[in-house]
Amino acid sequence: MENCDVLVVGAGFGGPVAARKCAEAGLDTVLLERSAIPGEKVVSGLVIPFYGFTFGPDFIREGNPPIERPICKVVNRFVRDGEIYATDSTLRVPKPLALGYAAYCKPFCTWLAGRAVEAGAELRTSTTAVEPILEKGAVRGVVTDRGEEIRCKVLIDAGGTQNRLAIQAGLRRKYLPEALELYMIWDFEMAKEDVDETFGLSMEFFHALPEEGIGAPLGYGSTLYIFTYRESIHPGLGQFLVTRGEIPNLARLLPRYFENFQEKVTRWRRDIAPKVRLRAVTWDVCPIYAGLIPETRNMPICGDGILVIGDAAGFEASAFGDGVPSAWFSAELAADVAIEALRRGDTSRSVLAAYEDKVREHPYITWIITDWRRWDLRKVLVSRSETELRRMIRDHWGIGAFRYRYSGRPLVKALREALRRDPRAPLKWMEMFTRYYHNWEENRFDPVSVPGREIG
Amino acid sequence: MEVRTSDRFPGVEWVGDPGDFIRVDESRCDGCANCVRVCLAECFEIKDRKARVRTLAECMECAACWYVCDKEAIMFSWPPGGTGFRTDWG
């Protein structure tokens, strides 16, 4: 048996951020990860939006994490009979600014875990937390797969979507299938000059009415996207585990959508297929609508001795990688609350409940989990209007929603708060955008490693 | 530890012995086949009107089966540390 102040379970995107902050505050912090190398079980296909970097942890903004490509433009393509009948690429920023940064999960999570270790956290990989240690309803640690007991004063649960600890602790229930999307990703190698020529610094989405067969019925999944990396592209698509009240045959549908896309869509056949080679096929489930379904949204995110962050807390939303920023934001909030609770010597729910207030007041997390307009795509299923489809995509879908009043509010609020804390924040952001861009151009990042270990 | 790959799903490795981290409680299963429908790795089959785990060889631990089982017949846990699915391209 061993003891620590803070035990963080999960070294994905959120866990290392919480662990680093707790370790920096001088707390004895252990970061548990069930995979051998952080991030090698994390499947996403990822463009992390800019606001994760501007409003997220200082050390990420000030560091040089391994990014695959800055994304300066979102190209929405509208498909009928395999042909693109309209393209909306109005959402763009000039480089070196970026709307987001593409990344592979393994190097990025390893880099994050390395920063936690650098700050003094102990990283323990290849260790599965099997069950929580409960005493009078309070979480006091975990039992690992090797039967060890690791006891702690506060457990920060960063176990991702399929997390079980908070469920075993009686705090939460498993997500409803209506809240979850199963998405499938195909990773293709593509020469950098071909990615540059075909896509530049853009990512593409392909939208169509359901009869086109290249994606889930509208509003019941993610439209087909192509994320662009340094020397690869990463098409993916997803569908909810429940569609119009039924469990669809996703084992058949998801591969078929992508086969149709490859066979029918000229943009793929002519411009992309001749230049790519399939490298990997992966999939995962994510809690995209967890915030929009009251039963899921209202599940507790803290209890006696435990705080839940990131996907494990349901902080995930649309198809533009909102999961990572909200994992970062909630990790910092949870760490702040844990540090304060330990300072006061009281880690009961009544003290840890400050985390709930901080999450509720956080402009982005609240927006990410409650922007109900994402449902609106389903209206197109009824109206069957291509004009309406284009309007919905432009106004309410993904990061495009920023341009509109309701969803623009969190940006304004976050900007105001950031400026209040540090009037020089915009200068720091510009420095980051510029440095990140040069890092990418020169393919030079911080070493992807954990101090003292030969991994990464 | 042994490392396995799959022709159907390139770019992924399965390491060591993850054990039976997904199981079906036949007494609860009503044979609805929801697990079969959502499993991209074809881990399940229906036999005698009950679901059973056919293989976990290509399982990516997504837990879709667990989520769609409203009879709570699927038991899902994490494989032991360092075993199971891994990828460089997630």
Could you provide a short overview of the structure?
The complex is a heterodimer of chains A (456) and B (90). Chain A is α/β, with parallel strands linked by helices and 456 residues long.
Q: Strands of the largest sheet of chain B, in order across it?
A: 1-2-7
Number of β-strand runs of chain B? 7
Please report the number of helical segments of chain B: 2
What's the rounded overall pLDDT mean of chain A?
Answer: 93
Structural class of chain A: alpha/beta
Backbone shape of chain B? elongated
For the largest beta-sheet of chain B, the strand count, sense and barrel status come to:
3 strands, antiparallel
Structural class of chain B: alpha+beta
Indicate the low-confidence ranges of chain B by residue numbers: none
Count of runs of 4 or more consecutive helical residues of chain A: 17
Shape of chain A: globular
Number of strands of chain A: 18
Low-confidence stretches of chain A: none
User: Overall mean pLDDT score of chain B?
Assistant: 97
What's the gyration radius of chain A in Å? 21 Å
Radius of gyration of chain B from the CA trace? Answer: 13 Å
Residue share in helix of chain B? 10-25%
Assembly state (oligomeric): heterodimer
**Biggest interface, residues from each chain:** A-B, 53 and 35 residues
The proportion of strand residues of chain B reads 25-35%
Which percent band covers the strand fraction of chain A? Answer: 15-25%
